[in-house]
Write a structure and sequence with these properties.
This protein is an alpha/beta fold. It is built from ten helices and eight strands. The protein has a single domain, classed as Protein of unknown function UPF0759 (TIM Barrel), CATH 3.20.20. It starts with a strand and ends in a 17-residue tail after the last helix.
C-alpha cells in the first residue's frame, strides 16, 4: 500500500485535552498547528464549517506548515445546511476565494450535508456541483441512507467528486470510488468520552477492516485522505498513528506515558 499518497490526520488540531498529551505543557495555542504539522501531513479544518475564516488567518495557517502539508476544509454550514443549494453558489464562491489563499496546500473541500438531505434532492445537488471549479478537489458526505444507490455514485463520478466514506456507530459496507482519490472520516459516537487525551476503546478490528478495504481500492486512486475524530476511540492523534503503522506509514509522535497501556 505504498504507491498511494496517504494524507492522514485528525479533525481539528486545537483541543484543550491534548495539552500535556500531544502538545507540550506551556505551549502557546498559536504554535499548535506548526507542532501538529511535524507529526501529521494533513488536517481537516472543522472551524470553516461554522464560518469562513478571514484570509489573513488562512495565510497564517499556510505559513505555519511545511511545504508538503495539506489542508482539507469543511464547507460552511451556510452552504450545506442553511441555504437551498440554488442560492448557495455565491457564498460558496466567496468561501473558495478565501481557501485559495492556501495555494498548493489546499487539499480537499468537504461538503457535509445534514441527515435530512435526501436522495430526492439529487437534481439540486447535481446542478450545484456543476457550478464548482474543476481545479479544486471536492468530497461529499451524504448521511441519509436514501443516497445508497448506484445513481448517486454515477452522478459523483460524472463530476469527479469523491463519495465520503465514514464510520459513525458502524462501518459502511464498502468504500465507493467516484474520483481519483478517496476521503474517509473516522467519527464515532459524539460525546461518548468525558476526556479526550488517551485512547479508551480498542478499535483494532475496525481499523483492520478499513486497511483491507483501502488496499482493495488502492489501484483505483492516487490519494487517500483520512481523518480521525476524538470521539472515535478517545484521542485522535494516537488512533491516527495506530492506523498509520497498520498501513506502513512513518509515524512521529510525542512521547506520552498515558499511551500504549490499553491495547
Amino acid at each position: 500500500m505504498q504507491s498511494v499518497d496517504w494524507r492522514l490526520g485528525t479533525m481539528g488540531f486545537s483541543y484543550a485535552d491534548w495539552r500535556g498529551a500531544f502538545y507540550p505543557d506551556g505551549m502557546n495555542a498559536s504554535d499548535y498547528l506548526a507542532f501538529y504539522s511535524k507529526h501529521f501531513n494533513a488536517v481537516e479544518l472543522d472551524t470553516t464549517f461554522h464560518a469562513t475564516p478571514p484570509p489573513d488567518r488562512v495565510k497564517r495557517w499556510r505559513d505555519a506548515t511545511p511545504d508538503n502539508f495539506k489542508f482539507a476544509a469543511k464547507a460552511p454550514k451556510l452552504v450545506t445546511h442553511a441555504l437551498k443549494l440554488e442560492s448557495a453558489s455565491e457564498p460558496m464562491a466567496d468561501f473558495l476565494r478565501v481557501m485559495r489563499e492556501f495555494g498548493g496546500k489546499l487539499g480537499v473541500i468537504l461538503l457535509q450535508f445534514p441527515p435530512s438531505f435526501a436522495y430526492e434532492q439529487i437534481d439540486r445537488l447535481r446542478a450545484f456541483l456543476r457550478t464548482l471549479p474543476s481545479d479544486v478537489r471536492f468530497a461529499v458526505e451524504l448521511r441519509d441512507r436514501s443516497w445508497g444507490r448506484e445513481e448517486t455514485l454515477a452522478m459523483l463520478r460524472e463530476m469527479s467528486v469523491a463519495y465520503c466514506s465514514a464510520e459513525y456507530a458502524a462501518r459502511p459496507s464498502r468504500i465507493p470510488v467516484t474520483a481519483d482519490f478517496v476521503y474517509v472520516r473516522w467519527i464515532g459516537e459524539h460525546q461518548r468520552f468525558a476526556v479526550m487525551d488517551h485512547e479508551q476503546i480498542d478499535v483494532t478490528d475496525s481499523l483492520s477492516w478499513w486497511k483491507e478495504e483501502l488496499a482493495r481500492i488502492t489501484p483505483e486512486v492516487g490519494t487517500i485522505w483520512g481523518f480521525f475524530n476524538n470521539d472515535y476511540a478517545g484521542y485522535a492523534p494516537a488512533t491516527c498513528n495506530r492506523f498509520k503503522r497498520m498501513v506502513g506509514q512513518p509515524v512521529s509522535e510525542p512521547t506520552d506515558p498515558r499511551q500504549g497501556r490499553l491495547f
